[in-house]
From TrEMBL, chain A:
One Pfam family in the UniProt entry: Acyl-CoA_dh_1
Family: Belongs to the acyl-CoA dehydrogenase family.
UniProt cross-references to InterPro entries, sorted A to Z: Acyl-CoA_Oxase/DH_mid-dom (IPR006091), Acyl-CoA_Oxase/DH_mid-dom_sf (IPR046373), AcylCo_DH-like_C (IPR036250), AcylCo_DH/oxidase_C (IPR009075), AcylCoA_DH/ox_N (IPR013786), AcylCoA_DH/ox_N_sf (IPR037069), AcylCoA_DH/oxidase_NM_dom_sf (IPR009100), Mycobact_Acyl-CoA_DH (IPR052161)
Species this protein is from: Novosphingobium silvae
Acyl-CoA oxidase/dehydrogenase middle domain span: 128-220
Record domain Acyl-CoA dehydrogenase/oxidase C-terminal: where: 235-373
The UniProt record lists the keyword Nuclease: no
One cellular-component annotation, GO: plasma membrane
Cofactor needs: FAD
Name the UniProt record assigns to this protein: Acyl-CoA dehydrogenase
TrEMBL record, chain B:
Record keyword Magnesium present: no
Record-annotated Acyl-CoA dehydrogenase/oxidase C-terminal domain positions: 170-286
PANTHER family with a match to the protein in the record: ACYL-COA DEHYDROGENASE, ACYL-COA DEHYDROGENASE FADE28
Gene Ontology MF terms: acyl-CoA dehydrogenase activity
InterPro entries in the record: AcylCo_DH-like_C, AcylCo_DH/oxidase_C
Protein name from the UniProt record: Acyl-CoA dehydrogenase
Lineage top rank: taxon: Bacteria
C-alpha cells in the first residue's frame, strides 16, 4: 500500500491549480456565492469550460476514442477535487464530464452521440437530471411521469421536482414510465428543454438561487429516436451513471478546505487557542480524512476495474458525516459567515447541507450498507 | 414540587394562543428567509405579555412560558430578551433589545436596527446605547438565520452604564436563549412529525420506518427536557441551572437540525416549507454565548468551582 500521490499526479494537480489561479477572476470567491446553477455561474461556466477544453482539462479522464486522454480514475478524482474546492467553476457542466458523456458513449445511438457529445466537449451544453418526482424521491422506482408512444413520437405527461439546473439546461435526462412494471417499466428519454409543453418553476431555497426546480410536462412530444437505451432499460443505465455521480463530487475536499478556512478565521480573531475549539476542529478534520480515505478506497476499485457496489454508499455516508460536523463547527463558532462574513464558507454551507439528501439520502445509504456490506437479515415485510 | 401550570399561567398562555392565532401558520408559498410582524409585536406589547416577569403573581416561569410559546410561531418576535433580561437592566429600555458579548462584537446581532437598544455585556460591566443607521452593517440579503440580523459597525464612546452584575445578566441571557430554543425545538419537532406522518414512500408513511422513529423519539426526549430545564432555570435563578439549560438546548440543536432536515428530504431545503424558520433560528442560537463549550465551562464552574 502506498498513500502518496505519484509525481505525475502531483504534477497534474499542480497544472489544474495553476490553471485555476490564472483563469478565475480576482473576485471569484464572492462571485462563487452565486449558486452553481445560477444564471451568473452558468454563463461564467460557458466561457470557463471552453478554456478548460483548450487546456485539455475538461475531460482528460475520458478514453482516447472519445477525445480524452484516457487518464484514469485517480486523475478524474484530482480534477474533481480541485474544481470542487474552488467552488465548482464548471457549474452544472461537471455532470457532463462525470457521467453524462460516459453514459452517452456507453448507451447512446450514433445519432445521440453525434448530437450531444460534441457540445459537451466544447464546454457548451448544460443538462438536467429529471429523476425525482413529488411522490418518488427515495422510492424512485415509483415514478409516474408517463411516456406514450404515439405514431412514432413519445408524448410525455407528468412532473419532476428538485431538478437542479432545469432553469437553464438545454437537455433533460428524463426518466419516464412506459409500462407498469416497477423498475422494468422505466425508460430514459433525452428531451430538449425548449420542447413545447415544458414549464419550469424555480423553487426558492436555502441553497442559492436557481438551484432546484419543478418541471412540468404537458403533452411534451419528442421523436422516438429521443429514447435513450431500450424501453425499460433505465434502471440499469441509471445504476451505472449514479455510481459515477456519487463518486463524482468529492465533497470531503471542500469540507476540509472550509474547515481550514474557518480555523484561519478563528486564528485571526485570536480564538483558536482555546482547547475545546482546537479539539472540535480536530474531530472535524478526522471525519474529513476518514471520508477521503473511504472515498479513495472506492476510486481504487474503479482504477482496478472492479465493480463498485455498496462501497460507494459507505463513502457517501462518511462524506455526509464530515460535511455535517464541519457545517456545525462553522455555524457554532463563526455564525457570521452565513450572514456575509465569508462567501467561501457560506458557499460551503450551501453545498454541505445537501450532502445527505441529494443523489440519494443518507438513510438510504445506510440501508444499503446494512443489507449489502453487513449482509444483515432484512426486516420482515 | 408542582409542575402543572397555575390558573394564571394557563390563562396567559390561552390569551397568547388566541392573539397569535393569525400568525400561527404561514401559507406554504409565502415563506421567505425572515418573517416578522409589526402588528403581532405591537399587540404583545399592548397586552403586557412581555412584562409578566415583574408581575408578582406571574414572575419568571410565566415569562419563560410566554417566550417558549411565542418562539413556536413561524414569525420571529423579540420576546426572550425583553421578557427575561430587560427587567434586570431597566424596564424602560426601548425594544427591540439586542444583547452583544463584549468579546464578540463581530457576531451577527439579532433584531439589530435603528432605534434598537444594544446592550453590551462583558467583564467590564453592562452598558447600552441606541443603534443608529450608520453604525449598522447589513447582513447579506440571503442570510438564512430567519431572524432579522445585522452587524455592529462600531460602538459609541459613551454608552449608558447600568448598575447591574454582568454575571446576573449572563445568567438571564442563558435562560432567555434556552427558553426560546425550547419553543423552536418544539415547533420544529411538530412540523417534522406531521411531514413524516403524511409523506409516503415505498407505499407507507415515512414515520413507519424504524430508522426514523427512534431518532425522532430521541429528538422528542431532548426537546421535552430542554423545555423543563429552561423553565427550571427561569424558576431557580441559579447560574448552574441557566448554563445547563442552554448547554442542553445547544446540544439538542445539533442533533435535531440535522435529523429534521434529513427527514424532510428535498422539502427541507425549500423556503416554502417553514421548517427552516425554526432550524435556522436554532442554529444561530447554537452559537450564542460561545456555544456549547462555553456553557459547559460555565456550568462546571457553577457546579464544582474553578
Ligand atoms: C440540492 C438538491 C438537488 C437535487 N437535484 C436533483 C436533480 O437534479 N434531479 C433529481 O431528479 N433529483 C434531485 N434531487 C432530489 C433528491 O434525489 C431527493 O431529494 C432524494 O432522493 C430524497 O428524496 P425526497 O426528497 O423525496 O425525500 P424522501 O424520499 O421523502 O425522504 C425523506 C426522509 O425519509 C427517509 N427515508 C425514505 N425512505 C426510507 C427508508 N426506506 N428507510 C429509512 N429512511 C427512509 C430519507 O432518508 C429521508 O431522511 C435533489 C435534491 C436536492 C436536495
Amino acid at each position: 500500500m502506498q498513500f502518496e500521490w505519484t509525481a505525475e499526479q502531483d504534477e497534474f494537480r499542480r497544472k489544474i491549480r495553476d490553471f485555476l489561479h490564472a483563469n478565475l477572476p480576482q473576485d471569484w470567491e464572492a462571485f462563487s456565492e452565486h449558486g452553481p446553477a445560477s444564471p451568473a455561474l452558468t454563463a461564467f461556466a460557458r466561457e470557463f469550460c471552453v478554456k478548460l477544453a483548450e487546456a485539455g482539462i475538461l475531460f482528460p479522464h475520458w478514453p482516447v476514442e472519445m477525445g480524452g486522454e484516457g487518464l484514469g480514475p485517480w486523475e478524474q478524482q484530482i480534477l474533481a477535487e480541485e474544481m470542487w474546492i474552488a467552488g465548482e467553476p464548471r457549474g452544472g457542466q461537471y455532470m457532463n464530464v462525470n457521467w453524462i458523456g460516459p453514459t452517452l458513449q456507453k448507451y447512446g445511438t450514433e445519432d445521440q452521440k453525434r448530437r450531444y457529445l460534441e457540445p459537451i466537449t466544447r464546454g457548451q451544453s448544460l443538462w438536467c437530471q429529471g429523476f425525482s418526482e413529488p411522490d418518488a424521491g427515495s422510492d424512485l422506482a415509483s415514478l409516474r411521469t408517463r411516456a406514450r408512444l404515439v405514431d412514432g413520437n413519445y408524448v410525455i405527461d407528468g412532473q419532476k421536482i428538485w431538478t437542479s439546473y432545469a432553469g437553464l439546461a438545454d437537455t433533460c435526462f428524463l426518466l419516464t414510465r412506459t409500462s407498469d412494471d416497477r423498475k422494468k417499466g422505466i425508460t430514459i428519454i433525452l428531451v430538449p428543454m425548449d420542447t413545447p409543453g415544458i414549464t419550469v418553476r424555480q423553487i426558492p431555497s436555502l441553497i442559492g438561487e436557481g438551484d432546484i426546480h419543478e418541471v412540468f410536462f404537458d403533452e411534451v412530444t419528442v421523436p422516438e429516436s429521443a429514447r435513450f437505451g431500450e424501453e425499460g432499460q433505465a434502471w440499469e443505465i441509471v445504476a451505472y451513471s449514479l455510481r459515477n455521480e456519487r463518486l463524482g463530487i468529492p465533497r470531503f475536499t471542500l469540507a476540509r478546505a472550509a474547515l481550514d478556512r474557518a480555523v484561519q478565521m478563528l486564528g485571526e480573531q485570536g480564538r483558536f487557542s482555546r482547547e475545546y475549539v482546537r479539539i472540535e476542529a480536530a474531530r472535524c478534520a478526522a471525519l474529513c480524512e476518514a471520508a477521503a480515505t473511504t472515498n479513495y478506497a472506492v476510486v481504487q476499485r474503479r482504477a482496478d476495474g472492479r465493480t463498485i457496489g455498496a462501497e460507494s454508499s459507505s463513502a457517501r455516508y462518511a462524506t455526509v458525516m464530515a460535511e455535517r460536523v464541519v457545517c456545525e463547527f462553522v455555524v457554532e463558532f463563526l455564525p457570521e459567515v452565513l450572514a456575509g462574513a465569508s462567501p467561501y464558507l457560506k458557499m460551503h454551507h450551501q453545498r454541505g447541507i445537501v450532502a445527505g439528501i441529494a443523489a440519494g439520502s443518507a438513510e438510504i445509504q445506510l440501508n444499503i450498507i446494512a443489507s449489502e456490506v453487513l449482509e444483515l437479515p432484512r426486516e420482515p415485510r | 414540587m408542582q409542575l402543572t401550570l397555575s390558573e394564571d399561567q394557563t390563562q396567559v398562555l390561552d390569551s397568547i394562543d388566541s392573539l397569535a392565532r393569525p400568525y400561527a401558520a404561514v401559507p406554504l408559498h409565502d415563506a421567505s428567509f425572515v418573517l416578522e410582524s409589526a402588528e403581532l409585536d405591537a399587540s404583545l406589547v399592548e397586552n403586557g405579555f412581555l412584562d409578566v416577569l415583574a408581575v408578582d403573581e406571574l414572575g419568571p416561569v410565566t415569562a419563560a412560558l410566554v417566550v417558549e410559546k411565542l418562539a413556536r410561531l413561524p414569525f420571529a418576535v423579540e420576546a426572550a430578551v425583553s421578557a427575561l433580561v430587560r427587567p434586570l437592566i431597566d424596564l424602560e429600555l426601548p425594544r427591540p433589545i439586542c444583547l452583544v458579548e463584549e468579546s464578540r462584537p463581530g457576531a451577527p446581532v439579532r433584531f439589530l436596527r435603528p432605534g434598537a437598544t444594544v446592550v453590551v455585556v462583558g467583564s467590564s460591566g453592562v452598558s447600552s446605547f441606541t443603534a443608529v443607521q450608520d453604525k449598522i452593517a447589513p447582513a447579506s440579503h440571503d442570510t438564512p438565520y430567519a431572524y432579522p440580523v445585522a452587524f455592529l459597525a462600531g460602538l459609541p464612546d459613551t454608552p449608558t452604564r447600568h448598575e447591574v452584575d454582568p454575571a446576573e445578566v449572563l445568567r438571564a441571557w442563558r435562560v432567555a436563549v434556552a427558553t426560546e430554543a425550547a419553543g423552536l425545538l418544539g415547533a420544529a419537532l411538530a412540523s417534522t412529525v406531521s411531514h413524516v406522518s403524511e409523506r409516503r414512500q415505498f407505499g407507507r408513511p415515512l414515520a413507519t420506518f424504524q430508522a426514523l422513529r427512534h431518532r425522532l423519539a430521541e429528538d422528542q426526549v431532548v426537546t421535552n427536557s430542554v423545555y423543563w430545564l429552561a423553565l427550571r432555570a427561569a424558576a431557580s435563578g441559579t447560574a448552574a441551572d441557566a448554563a445547563l439549560a442552554l448547554l442542553h438546548a445547544q446540544e439538542a440543536t445539533k442533533r435535531v437540525c440535522y435529523d429534521y432536515h434529513q427527514f424532510l428530504g428535498g422539502m427541507g431545503m425549500t423556503l416554502e416549507h417553514p421548517l427552516h424558520l425554526w432550524t435556522y433560528r436554532l442554529k444561530l442560537l447554537s452559537a450564542e454565548l460561545g456555544g456549547r463549550a462555553d456553557q459547559g465551562l460555565a456550568a462546571a464552574e457553577a457546579l464544582w468551582g474553578k
